[in-house]
Amino acid sequence: MSDAAFPLPAPAHGTPPEADVCLVIEGAYPYVRGGVSSWTQDLIATQSHLTFHLLVIVAPGTPLELRYKLPPNVCGLTHVPAAELPSGDTALPGGDLACAELLAPALRLFDRGASTDLRELVERVSALRGRLGRHILLDSRPAWQLFNDVYVRRCDGASYLNVFWAVRTLLAGLFSMLLCQLPKARSYHGVSTGYAGLLLARAHFETGRPVLLTEHGVYTNERRLEIMAAPWLAVDDARSLGVGGASNKVKSLWIDTFVAYARACYQCCDHIITLFEGNFALQIEDGALADRLTVIPNGIDLPRYASVVTTKRKEAGGDRPSAIALVGRVVPIKDVKTFIRACELLVRRFPDLICYVLGPMDEDQTYAEECVDLVHQLRLRKNVVFTGMVNLLEYFSKVDVLVLTSISEGQPLVILEGGAAGLPSVATDVGACRELICGVPSEEPSFGMGGRVARIGDPGHIAHAVAELLADEEERVRCGEALRRRVQAVYDKVDLHRRYAELYRDLLAPQPGGAGRRRR
Question: What CATH number does the domain containing 414 carry?
Fold first, then answer.
């Protein structure tokens, strides 16, 4: 396995120091920009009294180019290539019987298992960690029998070849998390379930140290959307082709496996943090205990946006063209194509409208190229501008309305950032978007509407909502002011930093017989 630590400050003997917090991250910071990565950078920087070791799960072969300057309290950085295993020994001392016994908990885990199944698997793997790899875990006769068992129990009637490769890939991902280097730390904090959740559960079982989870969006829900839309998971049997027919069994296997990982992770956590209460129902459905759920919303550096508000007020009544902006990575989950189609409808009414796409285009280059091609097909080259990464403060003063067309979100930072600058938003009804724009039922006093909420994947509905704000300056200003006041009252990140500091203090407080508080 090419699991490796990056060259960061370490003691003279070369052993990384024990961090206060091992932050477990999948597919994001510090190699990918975005809302979760920005949140992670901010969390580390503002908890400067603590040290952090970053344990980052990456796709094999991913260019590991740092996109952030790491704060000085990062004392270690380890990356784990998902689904990449060493060769390992060719057999165990007890032969196939010992191998079958080792793999038995993995089969139960595929059947929507729980933390007890994962605990048993972790214990068996940890006793053999120096010997295990592809030969035993994927290529042995007991592994072949496991494939057959999964097929009979979960996927009978589907393409055997599809099931074989699905199970092999899932096993490789699972065991890559159980075999990799686990940094020593006083506590472990993950920013999602999935593979990061597996590592959190493993850390709890192996170390007994406190475990904390922050979910920005519900990982299992996002994986469901991704898997159901995945072209590489073909329809796997004839029954799924008919009206009311069976669902795709291979896709169900993938989804249920990640639900099992989430359940195991939830059951091991001391605290499960989410950004808004709307996530609670999904988390509880996937196995989270209600008494461990806590809301800590994203926060905004309010003074940073004061100058933008001032500039926009001075420009009121100017003759610049109207402008809207989508802020985000050009990737399918942001549904940039729906934004572009909405722009085509808006340009019919506002011919000089400028439509910015403010965000990196290098994460999914194929999708980015498709978006550019769509702009050309719709003859929008004079209206739609792809900027790449920019300083948002420089663009907020040029924009009238922010637009978010995502098919899945947690609590989008961009709505908070725009709101802090007095910009209204039109957003699809995902994640916390409705709560941010409309307020929660208990909001007292009510600040009013901060924009509009639109249907997912509906360019016409989105365009209509944006047009209402572009055509009515008084309403647009009123919405921007309402959102600004809501952000000031509820989403000041000073409070966010304080609450995380209190959580860490509680988890790391010395207890009799241990370095930190153990799970109740």
Answer: 3.40.50.2000
To 10 degrees, what angle do helices 473-490 and 459-471 make?
100
Q: Are residues 308 and 400 in the same domain?
A: yes
Distances 435 to 279, 284, 428, 443, 449 between C-alpha atoms, Å: 12, 20, 12, 10, 10
Name the token pair of 397: 């003063």
Write the DSSP string, 235-252: --SGGGGSTT-PPPHHHH
Query: By percentage, how much of the chain surpasses pLDDT 70?
Result: 89
Structure tokens at 48: 């400067």
Model pTM score: 0.81
List the structure tokens of 185.
């730390």
Phi, psi of 454 (to 5 degrees): -120, 165
Looking at the structure, tell me whether residues 373 and 273 fall in a common domain: no
Note the Cα 399 to chain centre separation in Å: 27
The pLDDT of residue 436 is: 95
CB 18 within 8 A of CB 75: no
- Pick from 328, 331, 299: which is nearest to 42 by CA? 299
Q: 146 in a domain, yes or no?
A: no
442 and 454 both lie in a single domain: yes
Give 44-55 pLDDT, tens digit per residue: 999 999 999 999
Task: Give the pLDDT confidence of 400-427 residue by residue, as tens digits.
Answer: 999 999 998 888 989 999 999 999 999 9
Q: Does residue 398 lie within any of the structural domains?
A: yes
Separation of alpha carbons 348 and 292, rounded Å: 51
Domain hosting 327: range is: 302-491
- 367 and 451, same structural domain? yes
Angle at 197 between CA 363 and CA 138, to 5 degrees: 85
Residue 244: per-residue pLDDT: 40
Instruction: State the chain's mean pLDDT as an integer.
Output: 88
Q: Give 451-476 pLDDT, tens digit per residue.
A: 999 999 999 999 999 999 999 999 99
d(CA 24, CA 46): 18
**Nearest partner of 373 among 322, 330, 405, 324, judged by Cα:** 330
Question: What is the number of structural domains in the chain?
Answer: 2
